[in-house]
Amino acid sequence: MATKKLQIPSLGLGTNKVGGHNLFDNLKDEDGYAVVRKALDSGIELLDTAYMYGKGRSEEIIGDVIQDYDRSKIIIATKAAQDPNNNLELNNSPEFLKQSVDDALKRLKTDYIDIFYIHFPDEATPKYEAVAALNELKQAGKIRAIGVSNFSLDQIKEANRDGLVDIVEDNYSLVHRDAEKTLLPYLKEQNIAFVPYFPLASGLLTGKYSLSDHDKFKQFSDGEFKSIMDALDEVKVIGKKHDATVAQTILAWYIADPDISTVIPGARLEKQVVSNAGSMKVQLSQAEFDKINSLFEGF
Ligand SMILES: NC(=O)c1ccc[n+]([C@@H]2O[C@H](COP(=O)([O-])OP(=O)(O)OC[C@H]3O[C@@H](n4cnc5c(N)ncnc54)[C@H](OP(=O)(O)O)[C@@H]3O)[C@@H](O)[C@H]2O)c1
């Protein structure tokens, strides 16, 4: 039987817009530094990064900032799979993962990584072999928890053959709920922690968009987009009772969900982090939690 589920803070900071120049336009390093600092100053104690965010730049910025803070109070999660020496081809081989952890430790300027994820599955490596390599690093104290990301259920099962997977990160939000059926029953059974990425659906669930912005979210049909907008109007009403914004109310919903270990909204600007940190103070009643759940049923 699996061990107890990993205990981590309920709110973190997603840092793909911290130094992630290869993924997003118009990012400034100075904003990245400010975002990470502001998160830590606002009581956010988990930072989710990856080699792929700026090909190491996000990790470097975080490494610089944490020098001024108590390392023991910060949970750092990072990821690797894209091979910098082979055109970013996916690689889960034991040698690659071990080298990736050493490289990330240098960029983060720390001597351990709290959570290390295999960012994406490759096609060649048996998943239990990849995880066994991470277990060696865990025994050596270089990493503290073993994670996988973007794995199918079958790949997670293969990775967890020996019960060594601690945590899974996958695409999940109120408007992208497949994981409830595909992954969560197995993760719950195995006591594996779950971290959704894109919790704000890349900003859509902050309430800052309107019907005329549909062209930015083409994955939704006209009808779906309209029902998301209508649902967000109702979330706004619930939020008002808590003096909370739409984004804070949505984040509070994930925080209240026992199946979610931590929620890691990304931020481009300091003011977004400050606002998102406010979600930790929003306590939804069971009726409000259920209402928000039902508003987005069917996605
Ligand atoms: N494992 C993986 O493969 C994987 C994949 C994707 C992401 N992730 C992780 O998950 C994290 C979250 O995903 P994400 O950041 O892409 O998407 P997200 O959390 O759904 O959306 C974040 C974006 O919404 C906007 N935003 C955030 N707070 C706001 C606020 N209070 N008011 C207005 N706008 C706000 C910002 O973008 P704008 O200002 O540009 O609108 C921000 O970058 C990432 O940072 C990363 O750490 C992991």
UniProtKB/TrEMBL annotation:
PROSITE patterns reported in the protein's UniProt record: ALDOKETO_REDUCTASE_2
GO MF annotations, alphabetized: oxidoreductase activity
Source domain of life: Bacteria
Annotated Gene3D superfamilies: NADP-dependent oxidoreductase domain (3.20.20.100)
Keywords noted in UniProt: Oxidoreductase
GO cellular component: cytosol
Domain NADP-dependent oxidoreductase stretches: 11-295
InterPro entries in the record: AKR, AKR_Detox_Biosynth, Aldo/ket_reductase_CS, NAD(P)_OxRdtase_dom_sf, NADP_OxRdtase_dom
Pfam family, one: Aldo_ket_red
Family matches, as PANTHER family: NAD(P)-LINKED OXIDOREDUCTASE SUPERFAMILY PROTEIN, NADH-SPECIFIC METHYLGLYOXAL REDUCTASE-RELATED
Record protein name field: NADP-dependent oxidoreductase domain-containing protein
Source organism of this protein record: Companilactobacillus nodensis DSM 19682 = JCM 14932 = NBRC 107160
